[in-house]
Amino acid sequence: MKKIAIISPSVRKGRKSHRVALWFRRYLEENSLAMAEIIDLAEYAFPLFDERLKMQENPLPEALELAGKIRSADGVIIVTPEYNGGYPASLKNVIDLLTDEWRRKPVAISTVSDGPFGGTQVITSLQFTLWKTGAWTVPAMFPVPRVDEAFDGEGLPADPEAMGKRAARFTGELIRCIGAQSLMND
Known about the structure:
Blueprint: E1 3-8, H1 17-30, E2 35-40, H2 41-44, H3 61-72, E3 75-81, H4 89-97, E4 106-112, H5 123-133, E5 136-144, H6 147-150, H7 160-185
Parallel strand pairs: 1-2, 1-3, 3-4, 4-5
């Protein structure tokens, strides 16, 4: 079975994007699509890094743990809020920290906002940053507008059927990209 890491980068109190990360984990596992693990950056509380992990003399154990989780995942889903048209500094910090771990890794992007556009303004900048690391960004996107209305605090969707249809396309594309990537590595 595929292994997918779900990065939840918001470290804000009262964050809402984490609801979507919770739901993706549940969706992947309940539909037997993949084993899923949430990497909650709020639990790591990393300092700003001044060097890539592989160049650090004494890396934090948590940084090594994170690198191992990304390296061992077949693919990654990033569930990011949009902050003023960009993504959280915590996410940029982690992307820049790792190098080899991102190379050729299939990464799917879900964006979240309180407004009507679902965080779509952040997609281009995040794709570009991931592209520069060598990650393979999946063409399918999963914007979630009005997250308060779309998901409750436990990560349950207001409209499970509609959300399930969207998620099937999104996760299906990620799983296809994982399959293509594994063929390229053989």
